[in-house]
Specification:
The structure holds two protein chains of two kinds. Helices cover 92% and strands 0% of the residues of chain A. Chain A is an all-alpha fold. Classes of the chains: A mainly alpha, B mainly alpha.
Chain lengths: 48, 214
């Protein structure tokens, strides 16, 4: 059982890295969608 | 993933020599396979981009490079956590380890080029060449254990009858973990592709707006 911390650390690392990546993609997706909405609105305003 | 975790922690026997820490293999090895797949997809999509010039292939290559890097990072983080109790060292300059860190560095350069090189077509072409060249390292990593007799264990390509995974449940667990990682890769790739498509839409609209203003 003296090796258990290594096993625990390995699985914690896997889940943490995947979670951080999903969070980062989600953040970028929200920002891109917000920018797209703002641009569409700005273009509509300019056309009027 | 739930099935894989069930097999890893509740079904598969504990390895006699390495003990509980051998269970790191069930995430370390599939991470490596998934990273290789991700970088092969970068290579294939980059070739198609250079041939056809379609931005769709460029987006696939970019998304796959990013997801492949996530899994390659997992390989480089989980490996030392296994090596410390087994080899007594976090890291050695074994051929396979060295080639893997070179692979990580190549695709880190690829992503840096994509992030800071701008959105020009020329940058996409440079990145495509780098993505293709980087994949050459993968077969070298696979054969490095045999070719240069490194100390890294050969899990699936061992010629030693006492080596590799002897228990059938270990092989099934490794396969289940590989399938779970493949599904995670596919999901992440699709999510990232959607984000890149939206980002490209933003860039296109911004260009249209600039043209209309001028």
């Amino acid at each position: 059982m003296d090796r258990f911390p290594y096993l625990f650390a390995a699985y914690t690392v896997v889940w943490t890295v995947i979670f951080l990546y999903v969070w980062s993609v989600d953040r970028r997706a929200r920002r891109a969608e917000r920018e797209l909405d703002e641009l569409r609105k700005a273009l509509e305003r300019e056309r009027r | 993933m739930v099935v894989a975790l069930y097999l890893i922690f509740l079904v598969v026997p504990t390895e006699r020599d390495q003990g509980i820490v051998q269970r790191i293999f069930y995430v370390h090895v599939p991470s490596a396979w998934t990273a290789f797949l991700g970088f092969f997809v970068v290579c294939g999509a980059s070739l198609l981009y250079l041939w056809r010039g379609s931005p769709v292939f460029d987006r696939i290559a970019r998304a796959s490079a990013e997801v492949g890097m996530v899994f390659c990072t997992l390989v480089l983080l989980t490996g030392p956590l296994w090596a410390r109790p087994i080899w007594g060292a976090w890291w050695t300059w074994d051929p396979r380890l060295t080639m893997t860190i070179i692979l990580w560095t190549i695709y880190a350069s690829y992503l840096l080029l994509r992030a800071f090189g701008g959105g020009e077509e020329q940058i996409s072409r440079y990145a495509a060449v780098l993505g293709i060249v980087g994949a050459i390292d993968i077969p070298l990593i696979v054969v490095s254990v045999r070719l240069w007799r490194g100390m890294h264990p050969a899990v699936m390509m061992s010629r030693d009858p006492q080596g590799g995974l002897r228990d059938p449940s270990m092989r099934i667990t490794l396969l289940a973990a590989a399938v779970a990682f493949l599904l995670v890769y596919t999901w992440l790739l699709l999510v990232r592709l959607r984000t890149l498509r939206v980002a490209d839409g933003v860039a296109e609209l911004a260009r249209e707006r600039d043209l209309a203003a001028s």
